[in-house]
Q: What sequence folds into this?
């Protein structure tokens, strides 16, 4: 079946622009996670949704980062007023429940100039 | 402070030999451990996992060993194949106390030479 998909795959933004990154999880997966992966590092947790409820946003680095999953399926990660330090790969993962194996999408590589 | 550490940034192995990738952790609350494999420009792919109540889990050529007293786990690949060349990430979670978010190491780049 279809895996996790993310779009766009690559995004270049000028400093100060707003960006929106989309994640389509595996159908029926209740849990959805966003991670940020900087160059040479492992993925770092940003936020977690159970259906449409955002239950943990402790990893979001600043209030410029906002995520939503209004219908419990597709999720969007929005970054306002992008900064150079936001340049990273943003990974989305979904799982049947929060204690199941997480399956990752291909990621969106964001470059802020 | 890193809770999950992969101290070897890279490893080179001959085809057919064993690859051993190591991972150390500091948080004794972690109760579930996973290994992911990542090719360039792709997302991490789940490989194998182990619960803290076990000390070994095997799946084909891949075996994960967990030593709770040493807070150490390792991934063994036997025999290694050129297609195994990728970055391997160790990850851990406190399923009992968190929402299931994973804590990752920095990864080990495995190169399997023909």
A:
């Amino acid at each position: 079946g279809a895996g996790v998909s993310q779009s766009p795959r690559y995004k270049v933004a000028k400093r100060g622009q707003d960006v929106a990154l989309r994640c389509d999880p595996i159908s029926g997966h209740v849990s959805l996670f966003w991670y940020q992966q900087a160059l040479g590092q492992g993925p770092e947790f940003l936020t977690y949704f159970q259906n449409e409820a955002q239950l943990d946003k402790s990893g979001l680095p600043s209030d410029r980062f906002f995520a939503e999953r209004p219908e419990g399926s597709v999720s969007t990660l929005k970054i306002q007023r992008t900064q150079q330090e936001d340049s990273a790969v943003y990974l989305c993962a979904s799982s049947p429940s929060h204690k199941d194996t997480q399956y990752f999408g291909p990621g969106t590589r964001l470059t802020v100039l | 402070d890193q809770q999950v550490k992969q101290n070897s940034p890279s490893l080179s192995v001959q085809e057919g030999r064993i690859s051993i990738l190591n991972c150390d952790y500091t948080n004794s609350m972690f109760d579930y451990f996973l290994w992911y494999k990542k090719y360039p420009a792709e997302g991490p792919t789940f490989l194998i996992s182990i619960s803290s109540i076990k000390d070994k889990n095997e799946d084909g050529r891949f075996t994960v060993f967990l030593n709770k007293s040493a807070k150490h786990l390792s991934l063994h690949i036997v025999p290694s194949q050129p297609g195994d060349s990728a970055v391997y990430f160790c990850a851990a979670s406190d399923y009992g106390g968190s929402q299931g978010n994973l804590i990752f190491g920095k990864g080990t780049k495995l190169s399997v030479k023909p």
Chain A touches chain B through 30 residues (CB under 8 Å). The CA atoms of residues 12 and 111 of chain A lie 5 Å apart. Chain A is about 0% helix and 50% strand.
